[in-house]
From TrEMBL:
Pathway: Lipid metabolism; butanoate metabolism. This is 3-hydroxybutyryl-CoA dehydrogenase. Keywords: Oxidoreductase. The keyword Oxidoreductase applies. Gene3D superfamilies: N-(1-d-carboxylethyl)-l-norvaline Dehydrogenase, domain 2, NAD(P)-binding Rossmann-like Domain. Residues 191-287 form the 3-hydroxyacyl-CoA dehydrogenase C-terminal domain. It comes from the Bacteria. Residues 9-188 form the 3-hydroxyacyl-CoA dehydrogenase NAD binding domain. Pfam families: 3HCDH (PF00725), 3HCDH_N (PF02737). Belongs to the 3-hydroxyacyl-CoA dehydrogenase family.
Length: 296
């Protein structure tokens, strides 16, 4: 069976990642339907995307007209039933296996195209666990984007033992030809390539702060100036979200049982305190409304 070119995309969740994915799809001229749980969250998601499009205009990356057209291609719903005609759906909700599995079960019963790509943007949950929540695991795949999505060019593509080659080729063609992303493939192992390398590094930096080895400022300065990283590990943890880093670490620990993936107590306490990073205004650093770090 031949598959049509993907022109109708669904994005589930309009948090940091869902908003970014919806934005790049709308900028690539596809029709985008975004699911959020409530009207309020949908409104917050829409303004997140519009602010990012505005930044695109002020930095000269897109024109006013492109901004307007992208905004027109975005629609929001709180009913997954509206996703029946989608050819690709990218799920980008909270890093929680139960929540994601329930969404995949429902999505599978709603989306009609037998070759639809049902993708998860999970950072660490093995994709097969989401595949088995459906009756058509051949449609389920991992498409892992990076934050900020409009800026970072990578997508990790993760096929399972059940993903069909049609779905895998369709997902790869969309990421590379339509979105202009670079694709790497990873085995279906928790963390895939990038987080398997990154997360132990972030957790080590948190352990350094916790043990008084060095200050957070000096750890970040050391990696920026000594390793030429664009930002230090604690600023990066704030950008990713401490709650998300904790959930990723938990999934990787569950998969590999290696101490290097276990979340340190400081991370647990900060998540419990709601200090989850830039999206909440405070994490290792404090952030003004404009998202810039300010001194604690
Ligand atoms: P976020 O905290 O910004 O957004 C979470 C989203 O999940 C929101 O849209 C929220 O409404 C939704 N949500 C929460 N509970 C829900 C529920 N019970 N049912 C339905 N929706 C629910 O999180 P973020 O950072 O956008 O992460 C989303 C996914 O993307 C996660 O799987 C994460 O691992 C992955 N990811 C995150 C990256 C990052 O740098 N933050 C990078 C790459 C992937």
């Amino acid at each position: 069976m031949t598959s049509e070119k993907i022109q109708r995309v669904g994005v589930i969740g309009a948090g940091i990642m869902g908003a970014g994915i919806a934005e790049v799809c709308a900028r690539a001229h596809v029709d985008v339907l975004v699911f959020e749980q409530t009207r309020e969250l949908a409104a917050a998601g829409r303004s997140r995307i519009l602010r990012s499009l505005d930044r695109g205009v002020s930095s000269g990356k897109i024109t006013e007209r492109e901004r307007e057209q992208a905004a027109w291609r975005l629609r929001f719903t709180s009913d997954l039933g509206d996703f029946a005609d989608r050819q690709l759906v990218v799920e980008a909700v909270v890093e929680d296996e139960k929540v994601k599995s329930e969404i995949f079960t429902e999505l599978d019963s709603v989306v009609t195209d037998p070759n639809a790509v049902l993708a998860s943007n999970t950072s660490s949950i093995p994709i097969m666990k989401l595949g088995i929540a459906t009756k058509s695991p051949e449609r389920v795949i991992g498409m892992h984007f990076f934050n900020p999505v409009p800026v970072l060019p990578l997508v990790e593509l993760v096929t399972t033992l059940k993903t069909s080659s049609t779905v895998s080729q369709r997902a790869e063609a969309f990421a590379s030809d339509v979105l202009g992303k670079q694709v790497v493939r990873s085995a279906d192992r928790s963390g895939f390539v990038v987080n398997a390398l990154l997360v132990p590094y972030l957790l080590s930096a948190i352990r350094m702060v916790e043990s008084g080895f060095a200050t957070k400022e000096d750890i970040d300065k050391a990696t920026v100036l000594g390793l030429a990283h664009p930002m230090g590990p604690l600023a990066l943890t704030d950008l990713v979200g401490l709650d998300t880093v904790k959930s990723i670490a938990d999934s990787m620990y569950e998969e590999f049982k290696e101490p290097l993936y276990s979340a340190p107590p400081l991370l647990l306490r900060m998540v419990e305190a709601g200090l989850v990073g830039k999206k909440a205004g405070a994490g290792f650093y404090e952030y003004a409304e404009n998202g810039r770090a300010s001194k604690k």
